[in-house]
Amino acid sequence: MHSRFGLMTLVSLLIGTLAFPASAQSFTAEQSRDLPGWLRAHVGEGEDQIAPLVLHRARALYQRKVAARAVRNPCYFAMDATRPHGSEDGGQGRRFYIICESERSFRAISSGHGGGRTLDGMADFRNGRRCAKHFSNALGSRLTAGGVYVTDETRTSFKGYYQASSGRKAALVRPFIPFAGEGETANAEQRAIGGHAAVLIKGACLLRDPSSPHANASGYVPLGELVDYSSGRSSGCTSWSPRGAREIVSITQQQPTSLYIYPEAADIEAVARAVAAGQSLSRLGLYWNASCLKEIGEPRFWPRQGLEPMLARHQRKQPPSQPASLPYCDGQ
Fold first, then answer.
1. What radius of gyration do the chain's Cα atoms show?
2. Cys-Cys link to 116, which of 83, 125, 243, 248 (CB 3.0-4.6 A)?
3. Which UniProt keywords apply (predicted)?
4. Spatial CB neighbours of 114, under 8 Å, sequence gap ≥ 6
5. What residue numbers bound the domain in which 153 lies?
């Protein structure tokens, strides 16, 4: 049995090396045996499981960052953006992973993906609510970019007031965790990419409240409806449910950690080629969630070198936008 697995591993590595980039190689039996037993139980493609290739890369990134003393956090993160955002029972698909090996802890939570955009007469790279087809690291694309990240210091920003269940107004002060990227994701700071709770204030008006610490120079604050869009898409950031966001903020509050988001550009392009050729992904050592692949047909990566000039041309064609002014609340 051991020699059979060794032969399979060698063949897999040869195929991956010759036909596809190294990042697309399969998660081998030897790598699986390196995992602690409790973690192996969470590996797979079922609900609340992490795909082998995704875990392997996330774990390797974390170990590299720990060895370089860039990370000391006992936990690390991973996201599989090929999985569906919605589950079969109508709930939210859990595809963001919190792994704390020293505590023997594994958690899967929901996470949104970049919604993309439509550029009239130029390109359409909108993503559906359930599955992501389009990916990019281009500025202004509003798409998810897979690859290597490390969390940065949490920032908070006031978004407005809303009516709480008690009938009193409450402030939405939303934490934001910036992501610092490497390689393809090195422009994460320029893109203002990070993670936050999928909540916002919608339909706001200006309420006079000069005693509020958030009041503007004229003594007004925005007041609107609190909207939870955990089941929706994002502008390219990683969005979590409010509960999930609180847990992640608490983990990263004092110590940064690593985040690996799958798929990278090479993975997307290799899968697209295989699908177009009618080839088996598993035989080629490639991975994509089967349910989403059936829905999207084949994925597409939009390189920033081609998409950013297109976005710039589209922006030049748009009339100058004026800053939107909020109306005053009734009775103000």
1. 22
2. 125
3. Signal
4. 127, 132, 134, 135, 141, 142, 143, 144, 233, 234, 235, 236, 237
5. 2-317
> Distances in Å between the alpha carbon of 83 and those of 22, 45, 50, 270?
22, 9, 10, 17
Among 277, 272, 265, residue whose Cα is nearest residue 307? 265
Q: Which amino acid is at 4?
A: R
**Residue 58 CB contacts under 8 Å (≥ 6 apart), including other chains:** 50, 76, 77, 78, 97, 99, 258, 259, 260
CATH of the domain at 72: 2.40.440.10
The Cα 126–Cα 135 span in angstroms is 10
Q: Is residue 329 part of a domain?
A: no
What is the DSSP code string of 179-198? EEE-GGGTTTTTTT-EEEES
Count of alpha carbons within 13 angstroms of residue 205, beta-carbon side: 9
